[in-house]
Amino acid sequence: MAEELPRLVRRAARGDQAAFEAVYRAVAGPVYGVALRTLHSPAHAEEVAQEVLLEVWRTATAYRPERGSVLTWVLTIAHHRAVDRVRSARASAERDRRAGLRELLPSDPPEEQAVRSLDRQRVRSALTRLSAAQREAVVLAYYGGYTQREIAHRVGVPLGTVKTRIRDGLIRLRAVITPDDVRPGRRGPDPERNPRRIARTSEPWKDTVTADQQRIARW
After folding, report:
1. Quick one: which of 171, 146, 174, 142 has its CA closest to 159?
2. For residue 203, which phi and psi values (nearest 5 degrees)?
3. Per-residue pLDDT for 32 more than 90?
């Protein structure tokens, strides 16, 4: 059959359907094997194999015997298409992850700003102050890249419960990692109790704010 394949491909290139069916029977198994080894999914491997064999039918005129055997040509196409499928799946998963994060906090509230702005070490330390359920949900969402629905399925709780845990956990994180003297509604130190700082600035509490802003900018 290997010796017959070049002739069959030339006939298939001229529209001979019977010749293509013979080529199909000869290469379908190896094509599926290459796709399966790359994709590790029988369903996806079958889809790629069908795409490859259709491409062989459409591009049979492109085959050049001097460049290798028919089987080598077909399996090269199969490998490229399987790799393309892997890359496409990864890109799709990344888009879904980003969409999940946008769904999680679509309006960029202060809780998310606190998590993103402060350095990672402070966040990790603050995570220990959450309940186990809140910590699990926040870590899966921000460090594991899971969507809310995926987290709900993974831990076996309703979607609404996951949303509540993440929201409450982020609020708690913000309360833990935001310095007391820069929280909304807090006033700076009493000037009468800190005369040395009065000499440096008329608003000494700004020193703390500026230092924290610089730390955030560096991170």
Report:
1. 146
2. -130, 80
3. yes
